[in-house]
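Design job #97: recover the sequence.
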């Protein structure tokens, strides 16, 4: 991961003393506020708060999100002029890629308030407009979103059992659904069509280092 010289001091937002803008290995066009070591940052956040906090998934560029962002930037027609929802957005990487590619509107959803703050700052850093949408949306169908994006959402069985019905409902009402994933156990690959596969960046030490191949898939 290449660190840039620009630094953002934002303890009032995150309860931390420093964040750095970095380039995600697979999407160097975009800059994100990521932790050099998310586990260390998590421990510091909990120490500051004096309580247990949700793991800072927003502080890492996960491989499925990087693949989805790469695909969108390389195929802007996927989102151009369309209303986009990025589900479980984390850092906002995929949402920001959609905005860069010319989406009409982009909403980035997450249940973690730290993630929503990170998305806002990351969108500002990349000069794009992304609306944050808090809360659990999984009982719905994505409302009026014409494109639903989901990176790295099949890492946990209970979550996958809620995510998949949501995505199928979105597809059933006519939304285009794209998923970025490195082949996790709970990904329903037999119900999806692979539209692109990428080798994992050799220098990506920010997330799962065992990943060798990353795919972008769509619903049938």
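Job complete. Output follows.
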């Amino acid at each position: 991961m290449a660190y840039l010289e620009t630094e953002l001091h934002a303890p009032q937002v995150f309860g931390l003393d420093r964040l750095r803008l970095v380039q995600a290995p697979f999407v160097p066009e975009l800059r994100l506020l990521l932790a050099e070591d998310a586990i260390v940052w998590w421990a510091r956040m909990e120490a500051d708060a004096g309580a247990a906090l949700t793991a800072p998934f927003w502080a890492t560029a996960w491989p499925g999100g990087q693949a989805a962002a790469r695909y969108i930037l390389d195929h802007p027609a996927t989102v151009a002029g369309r209303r986009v929802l990025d589900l479980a957005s984390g850092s906002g990487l995929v949402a920001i890629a959609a905005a860069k590619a010319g989406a009409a509107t982009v909403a980035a959803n997450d249940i973690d308030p730290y993630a929503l703050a990170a998305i806002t700052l990351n969108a500002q850093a990349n000069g794009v407009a992304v609306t944050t949408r808090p809360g659990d949306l999984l009982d719905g169908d994505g409302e009026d979103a014409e494109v639903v994006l989901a990176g790295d959402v099949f890492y946990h069985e209970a979550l996958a059992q809620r995510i998949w019905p949501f995505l199928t409902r979105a597809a059933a009402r006519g939304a285009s659904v794209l998923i970025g994933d490195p082949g996790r156990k709970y990904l329903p690959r037999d119900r999806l069509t692979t539209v692109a596969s990428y080798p994992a960046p050799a220098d990506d030490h920010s997330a799962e280092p065992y990943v060798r191949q990353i795919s972008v898939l769509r619903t049938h």
